[in-house]
């Protein structure tokens, strides 16, 4: 393709405004947040006196933040496990049934169209210990299964049981998405390969382990990245459904940051939390981006 | 197939359907809850019959929710429509230049933009508030619209770039032979064949902006200016638990994106898969 000088100039003129906007709003703002995190800004009025990493240090010794990190870890593990295993099961079942695939797929996927806030309102009602699922359990004679759901402050080691209903709500929202990703992947496996394996006498389990799982590997990785970065920054769902919960049982860094900054006016501390959140996400995203871009180049 | 293995297959088949039907019922529980609770009167909503169908259908819950949420519903449209249109157009232009006019540095620009999709927005919120206050857009919808346009640029650029990569360069070269420059090629050739990508991006942006909460709750303090997600959260956080109004309100907040999903499901899924690089 011939690029005349005029075309190049116009092309640059088209892209550069967006590029500058992203530079300022993403990179410039992140740098600014970091500057705030190292400042003495505590209250309505900005105060940019440099205090170094004081706020980061105090965060890691704060009980609430330690609980938040544990909660994030447990939430991420459970959320990923449920969505990936569940999504894979749904996708494989839908790939094999003769009738009704569309109906089931649409039902499993519709939560993705809905706001986390709406989801939060719904599950807050459903898992409400006095009006929600406990009433239903009692009615069908399973009252022994009733418990306090998200207002139960008890924990096993560092795991707060109140996270379970939150994981259910979040998985309800995302499982269909992961299923759709897997369905697209399964459609990409040629039938001949599976037929050939079957002719060779391979059973269902062997086909699953030797053909299906290896060919879905890139999608499993994408799913882990998508879900992982959703869970590391989760805010609206938990904020609406349970808030920080009893004794921070369902607290997350996103909620801590929001309350500290915009309700407590502790700007420097809030900025420090958000920088840590950014680092956690970057730890997951950067290797992935590197991997994807390198694969595309090569 | 022997008779025995046929029977075995049938049992397995009905087992699969039973499992799928039970799962589907579980997925529909929130919709059931929205409907049965929203259609009850305030007096009928009590602990014993929370899960039952309403004895008498009343639209009190929906009327009350509509009464309180109508201004916010309008705000959400006023916010979502322009932000969706502008960010989609910018994405289309950027994607076109980056994929078809690969001048030096285009790749760097693309990678720099890409990272912007993944950041937790908490990490830019404080400067954003300061910036919008500085240009006097803090607290109002225009500031929120600007925010959604800017942070929409990475994902819309990515989707259009991937779409345009599939279009053969020979098309552009042919147009160049006819004496067309970069702008005319976009207007006469690329834009007209971009409809499928626009549908996907518009649905993706509309749904995400409509459903967004964090920017909205931080940037717009005045209740009459807030979009529906924030108003719904406030409705749910109020002192007296009017479950019927809350559930009706939640359904109202969900209806626009549910309509898109039902009518344009195919494109919605394409948007999801395009966005699976993002999430």
If you had to describe this structure to a student in words, what would you say it looks like?
The complex is a heterodimer of chains A (298) and B (279). Chain A is an all-alpha fold and 298 residues long. Helices cover 71% and strands 1% of the residues of chain A. Chain A has helices spanning 5-37, 54-60, 63-96, 101-109, 116-126, 133-139, 163-187, 191-199, 204-232, 236-241, 253-263, 267-297, and strands at 155-156, 159-160. In chain A, strands 1-2 form a two-stranded antiparallel ribbon. In chain A, helix 5 (116-126) crosses helix 7. The mean pLDDT of chain A is 94. Chain B has helices at residues 3-38, 60-100, 106-115, 122-134, 141-165, 169-177, 182-190, 195-211, 214-219, 228-236, 243-263, 265-275. In chain B, helix 1 (3-38) crosses helix 11 and helix 8 (195-211) crosses helix 12 (265-275). The longest helix of chain B has 41 residues, at 60-100. Chain B is flat, with a radius of gyration of 24 Å. The mean pLDDT of chain B is 91.
Summarize the structure.
The complex is a heterodimer of chains A (298) and B (279). Chain A is mainly alpha-helical. Chain A has helices spanning 5-37, 54-60, 63-96, 101-109, 116-126, 133-139, 163-187, 191-199, 204-232, 236-241, 253-263, 267-297, and strands at 155-156, 159-160.
List the helices and strands and how they pair.
The complex is a heterodimer of chains A (298) and B (279).
Chain A: H1 5-37, H2 54-60, H3 63-96, H4 101-109, H5 116-126, H6 133-139, E1 155-156, E2 159-160, H7 163-187, H8 191-199, H9 204-232, H10 236-241, H11 253-263, H12 267-297
Antiparallel strand pairs in A: 1-2
Chain B: H1 3-38, H2 60-100, H3 106-115, H4 122-134, H5 141-165, H6 169-177, H7 182-190, H8 195-211, H9 214-219, H10 228-236, H11 243-263, H12 265-275
Q: Tally the helices of chain A.
A: 12
* Rough outline of chain B: flat
Runs of chain B with pLDDT <50, length 5+? none
Radius of gyration of chain A: 24 Å
* Helix-residue proportion of chain B: over 70%
Our estimate of the beta-strand percent of chain A is: under 5%
Kindly report the average pLDDT value of chain B.
Answer: 91
SSE string of chain B, helices as H and strands as E: HHHHHHHHHHHH
How many strands of chain B?
0
Radius of gyration of chain B: 24 Å
Content-based structural category of chain A: mainly alpha
Strand content of chain B: under 5%
How many H/I helices of chain B?
A: 12
Approximate shape of chain A = flat
């Amino acid at each position: 393709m011939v690029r005349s000088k005029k075309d190049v100039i116009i092309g640059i003129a088209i892209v550069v405004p967006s590029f500058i906007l992203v530079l300022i709003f993403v990179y410039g703002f992140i740098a600014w947040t970091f500057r705030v995190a190292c400042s003495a800004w505590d209250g309505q009025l900005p105060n940019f006196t440099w205090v170094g990493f004081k706020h980061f240090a105090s965060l890691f010794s704060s009980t609430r933040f330690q609980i938040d990190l544990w909660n994030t870890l447990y939430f991420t593990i459970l959320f990923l496990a449920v969505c990936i295993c569940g999504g894979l099961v749904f996708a494989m079942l839908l790939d094999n049934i003769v009738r009704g695939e569309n109906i089931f797929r649409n039902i499993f996927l519709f939560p993705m169209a809905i706001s986390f806030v709406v989801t939060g309102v719904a599950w807050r009602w459903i898992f409400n210990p006095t009006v929600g699922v406990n009433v239903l359990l009692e009615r069908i004679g399973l009252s022994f299964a009733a418990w306090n759901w998200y207002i139960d402050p008890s924990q096993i080691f560092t795991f707060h049981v109140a996270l379970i209903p939150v994981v259910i709500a979040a998985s309800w929202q995302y499982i269909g998405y992961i299923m759709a990703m897997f369905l697209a992947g399964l459609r990409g496996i040629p039938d001949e390969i599976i037929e050939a394996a079957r002719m060779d006498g391979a059973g269902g389990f062997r086909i699953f382990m030797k053909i299906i799982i290896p060919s879905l590997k890139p999608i499993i990785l994408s799913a882990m990245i998508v879900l992982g970065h959703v869970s590391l920054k989760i805010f609206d769902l938990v904020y609406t459904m349970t808030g920080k919960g009893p004794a921070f049982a369902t607290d997350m860094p996103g909620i801590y940051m929001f309350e500290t900054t915009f309700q407590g006016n502790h700007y420097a501390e809030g900025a420090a939390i958000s920088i840590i959140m950014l680092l956690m996400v970057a730890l997951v995203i950067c290797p992935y981006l590197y991997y994807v871009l390198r694969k595309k180049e090569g | 197939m022997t008779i025995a293995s046929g029977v075995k297959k049938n049992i397995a088949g009905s087992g699969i359907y039973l499992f799928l039907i039970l799962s589907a019922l579980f997925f529909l529980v929130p919709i059931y809850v929205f409907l049965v609770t929203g259609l009850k009167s305030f007096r009928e909503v009590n602990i014993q019959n929370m899960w039952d169908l309403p004895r008498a259908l009343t639209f009190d819950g929906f009327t009350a929710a509509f009464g309180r949420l109508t201004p916010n519903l309008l705000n959400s449209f006023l916010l979502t429509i322009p932000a969706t249109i502008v960010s989609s157009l910018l994405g289309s232009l950027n994607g076109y230049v980056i994929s078809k006019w690969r001048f030096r540095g285009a790749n760097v620009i693309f990678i720099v933009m890409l990272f912007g999709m993944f950041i937790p927005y908490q990490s830019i919120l404080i400067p954003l508030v300061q910036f919008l206050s500085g240009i006097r857009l803090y607290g109002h919808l225009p500031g929120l619209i600007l925010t959604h346009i800017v942070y929409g640029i990475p994902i819309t650029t990515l989707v259009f770039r991937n779409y345009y990569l599939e279009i053969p360069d020979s098309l552009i070269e042919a147009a160049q032979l006819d004496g067309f420059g970069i702008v005319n090629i976009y207007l006469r050739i690329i834009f007209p064949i971009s409809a499928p990508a626009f549908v996907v991006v518009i649905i993706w942006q509309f749904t995400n902006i409509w459903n967004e909460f964090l920017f909205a709750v931080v940037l717009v303090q005045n209740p009459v200016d807030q979009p529906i997600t924030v108003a719904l959260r406030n409705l749910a956080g109020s002192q007296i638990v009017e479950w019927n109004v809350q559930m009706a309100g939640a359904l109202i907040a969900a209806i626009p994106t549910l309509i898109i999903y039902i009518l344009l499901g195919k494109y919605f899924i394409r948007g999801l898969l395009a966005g699976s690089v993002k999430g």
